[in-house]
Amino acid sequence: MGEWREVKIGDITNLYQGLAINKKTNYLLVEKSTLPLLRIKDLQENREEFFINDKEVSKKCIANEDDLIFTRTGIVGMVFMGKKGVVHNNCFRIVPKSDNVYLPFYYHYFNRDNMRDYLTNISAGSVQPDMNHTIFKTVKVPFPPLKEQKAIAEVLSALDNKIDLLHCQNKTLEKMAQTLFRQWFINGNGTLVPLKGEAKASLPNEWEEVPLSDFGDIICGKTPSKKKPEYHNGTVPFIKIPDMHGNTFISNTADTLTEAGSNSQKNKLLPVKSICVSCIATVGLVSMNIIESQTNQQINSIIPKQENFRYFLYLYMKSSYDLLHAMASGGTATLNLNTGDFKKMEIIKPDEDTLDNFHALVEPQFNKIFENQQQIKTLENTRDTLLPKLMSGDVRVEI
Predict the structure, then answer these.
(1) CA 14 – CA 137 distance, rounded (Å)
(2) Distance CA 317, CA 277 (A)
(3) For 41-68, b where at least 16 C-beta lie within 10 A, e where not — what string?
(4) How large is the average pLDDT for residues 182-193?
(5) Which helix (H) or strand (E) holds 8?
(6) Domains in the chain, ordered, with CATH?
(7) Which of 72, 75, 145, 297 is the one with CA 20 to 30 A from 132?
(8) What is the helix (H) or strand (E) element at residue 369, kind and residue range?
(9) How do residues 136-176 score in pLDDT, each as one tens digit?
(10) Is the dihedral of CA 190, 196, 197, 200 positive or negative?
(11) What percent of the chain has pLDDT over 70?
(12) What residues contact 142, with CB distance under 8 A and at least 6 apart?
């Protein structure tokens, strides 16, 4: 290991508690300032909802873009950099004690699933995990020479930057496809065709209104028995709603099935690029699977009968968020769009020429998104394999 040492994080950094927002401090909230309030959900969603009167706040609560922000209550162990604002009480602000500490290195060190699991397990709290100063300061971390800290961070940041670039490109490509869909299939008042009543008479020739099931097989997912461990932790992706957030194509899932688990419900296996729609609790998320997969019972999926249905259906579902919510309301507290009603959902079916032409127009965008997502998965696997070896010193970076 040479000059590498192991130290307590409290020996090399200072921790500052975020600002507690309560009845006494609500007066600090203002409509607009240069200092957004950084709560966990603001950091996760990269948004600015509330702003703070900066003249009334201790500087210890104010994070600069070079600081680490560490989530400590509820969701423990998430880390963020590049954020400027007033850190909420559910987070720590972390700053180095000396110039020999390079925080981007420790951003990558803590930004690992196994590290988050470890920190959650050692946190206090009976109702929800709560990481206090005393416990966190005792967490042991590697302390390589400054030059190696910077070199390792540079390697990992390069991979992250490439992944972020591909994600941004995918968002742009999908927005282009959505714009084309609106131009072709959205009415001037912002609603999907067809409209009800007299407006149906104005549909183009050969266009018709049909149940969703006319476009393909509708599959409601199912969870194999948890009592059979041999069904779980295999190679078949098992898609749940959290896996769908922000993904056109799903390349990673938190849970997987074994071949035995998948075979126990063969009629639930989804071919590549099936359209998955969340229909319980969180309704209206739409994604496609990148390899053969299964889903849980909160997701209904469409296996298109024709290739020229695929991206039309995907974009139609994405544009039907309000309708899906309305169908799922049913007067109950939890939204639930059952498979039977989902199958009966009436949508427009354009003529074959229109479907062919539209498919030819948007297919290149989705093919590129698919390729990018595959590259993202490869880069993430490379990073996740390399990261622990770099952090332990088993793999050294040439300086």
Answers:
(1) 9
(2) 8
(3) ebbeeeeeebbbeeeebeeebbbeeebb
(4) 70
(5) strand 5-8
(6) 5-143 (3.90.220.20), 186-354 (3.90.220.20)
(7) 145
(8) helix 352-392
(9) 999 999 999 999 999 999 999 999 999 999 999 999 999 99
(10) positive
(11) 91
(12) 4, 5, 6, 109, 391, 392, 393
Beta-sheet pairing, 249-250 with 286-289: parallel
Sign of the C-alpha dihedral, residues 105, 106, 112, 118?
positive
Query: Structure tokens of 306?
Result: 């024709």
Tokens of 336: 């639930």
Residue type, 24: K
Phi, psi angles (nearest 5°) of residue 381: -65, -40
Residue 243, CA distances (Å) to 131, 218, 239, 256 in order: 26, 20, 6, 12
Angle between helices 352-392 and 310-318 (to 10 degrees): 80
Tokens in use for 164?
């972020």
What pLDDT is recorded for position 196? 46
Bridge partners, 335 (sequence order): none
- Please provide the distance, in angstroms rounded to a whole number, between the alpha carbons at the two ends of the chain: 15
Q: How far is CA 47 from the centre of its chain?
A: 14
Which residue matches tokens 């007033």? 86
Rounded distance between C-alpha atoms, residue 294 and residue 224, angstroms: 10
Q: Do residues 40 and 90 touch, judged by C-beta distance below 8 A? A: yes
pLDDT above 80 (res 224): yes
Take residue 28 and report the two structure tokens written for it.
Answer: 């600090």
**Overall pTM > 0.70:** yes
Element counts in the chain: helices (H) and strands (E): 12, 21
pLDDT for 35-75, tens place per residue? 888 999 889 888 888 888 767 788 899 999 999 999 999 88
DSSP for 13-64, written as a single string: EEEEE-B--STTTGGGEES--S-BEE-HHHHHHT----EE-GGGS-GGGEEP
For residues 256 and 381, the answer to whether their CB atoms sit within 8 Å is no
CA distance 332 to 63: 42
Residue 30's pLDDT is what? 62
Q: Quick check: 49 and 86 in contact, CB under 8 A?
A: no
Spatial contact of 239 and 276, defined as CB atoms under 8 Å apart: yes
Q: Which two tokens stand for residue 144?
A: 């390589």
